[in-house]
Amino acid sequence: MIVGLTGGIGSGKTTVAKIFEEIGVPVYIADKEAKLLMETSGEIRGGIIELLGEEAYTGNLPNSSYIASIVFNNKNKLDLLNAIIHPAVKKHFKEWYEKQKVPYVIKEVAILFETGSDKECDCTVLVTAPLEDRIKRVMERDQVSKEEVESRINNQWPDNEKIKLADYVVNNINLVKTKQCVTTLHHTLLAKSRPV
Ligand SMILES: CC(C)(COP(=O)(O)OP(=O)(O)OC[C@H]1O[C@@H](n2cnc3c(N)ncnc32)[C@H](O)[C@@H]1O)[C@@H](O)C(=O)NCCC(=O)NCCS
Ligand SMILES: Nc1ncnc2c1ncn2[C@@H]1O[C@H](COP(=O)(O)OP(=O)(O)OP(=O)(O)O)[C@@H](O)[C@H]1O
């Protein structure tokens, strides 16, 4: 069974994914795999350079801050970048998933609903947190400005849209309560994964 895990920037997707991992659930972090593919795939590198120019890469390494400065302020360029990267991530996930021999896996995707990838999951978990907490957390974690965090938030659906679509919601304010919530959710997902 594939459980899609998503949430807006700074909501705590990665934090919740780590809690599932500590329980022993295999976790696929799309952001991380996307970055790896951007570094290792000549086809992706070529496509991004064609789209954004030579400055998008330094050698084989993508220039993330340069790419972000363009795509998070230009919806058309973001869509074209996604069209280059997402199909490769989808293929990579399928190969990874086929090797997993467990009741369920977690697929963490920042833009699960925005890309329609929730339809490829058996159920979905949304991580939420108050917007001001999310902005503060990312500013502290990434040492970036409020405006830079907001430029990413503007390219993501608001929580009230995602809540309508999610099967489960983890309101990640207090970490202790989040851990308890994820442990309970794990047992629910185990039961759901077993054929009746
Ligand atoms: C634009 C890039 C290079 C910026 O890299 P950078 O390290 O600065 O940011 P990072 O990847 O950590 O993203 C920070 C947050 O931005 C948000 N974000 C990332 N990609 C997207 C996107 N395509 N649309 C909306 N929000 C996004 C997420 O909340 C993410 O967690 C990178 O985000 C990227 O390549 N994005 C396009 C590929 C993608 O969609 N990856 C995510 C799922 S596969
Ligand atoms: N409940 C919490 N209380 C305080 N800080 C938290 C909480 N949950 C997560 N954080 C911190 O907030 C930051 C963002 O969390 P995390 O990286 O898990 O979010 P994310 O949704 O994966 O963000 P991104 O979309 O940027 O990958 C991290 O530094 C994390 O340690």
From TrEMBL:
Main subcellular location: cytoplasm
Protein purpose: Catalyzes the phosphorylation of the 3'-hydroxyl group of dephosphocoenzyme A to form coenzyme A.
NCBIfam families to which the protein is assigned, alphabetical: dephospho-CoA kinase
Keywords of this entry: ATP-binding, Coenzyme A biosynthesis, Cytoplasm, Kinase, Nucleotide-binding, Transferase
InterPro entries reported in the protein's UniProt record: Depp_CoAkinase, P-loop_NTPase
Compartmental location: Cytoplasm
Residues holding ATP: 10-15
Any one GO molecular-function label of the UniProt entry: dephospho-CoA kinase activity
PROSITE patterns: DPCK (PS51219)
CDD domains: DPCK (cd02022)
Record's signal peptide: none
Full protein name: Dephospho-CoA kinase
Superkingdom to which the source organism belongs: Bacteria
Pathway(s) where this gene product acts: Cofactor biosynthesis; coenzyme A biosynthesis; CoA from (R)-pantothenate: step 5/5
Top-level EC class as recorded in UniProt: transferase
UniProt similarity note: Belongs to the CoaE family.
Organism of origin: Zhouia spongiae
Catalytic activity: 3'-dephospho-CoA + ATP = ADP + CoA + H(+)
